[in-house]
Give the backbone structure.
Amino acid sequence: MHTATAAHLRYGAMLAFAGVVVGLACGQAGAASAAAPETLPICRLDPHDSTKLAVEPCRTAPPVQPRRSVVQAIGRMPVQGTAPPVVPAAPMPPGVVVPMPGAPQPIGSCDTGGCRDASGARYNGAGNATLDANGRICHRNGAFMQCF
């Protein structure tokens, strides 16, 4: 707890205790404690230092408008349509080999014309889209290059 906050709490406790003692001495315990918050000014920030209050101790400001209850409206989720049918792919003719993407290769270094991977293979192009020596499209993702 900050020392200023602790000092304010002690000061507020001393004021409350003094109000109760005075009220008991005068025989007005209930009236003194009920009237004490009304005599304090409303809390405002210091115009020169926004981290401090202008006057301490203070009371919170009264509400501008009374709170009112509002009915919570919860809408229903929209009905989802059926999924489109899955069409099986046509079988590949014999002898046609579909190339699979290669494993990502770590990039060693890059220059304005492209990059080289850790094994020294060159990828020509700019940005994330490059071509390898075989003409395959390669994609750079961070420190890795993957060709398709």
The first strand starts at residue 105 and ends at 111. The CA atoms of residues 78 and 84 lie 18 Å apart. Strands lie at 105-111, 114-117, 122-124, 129-131, 137-141, 144-147.
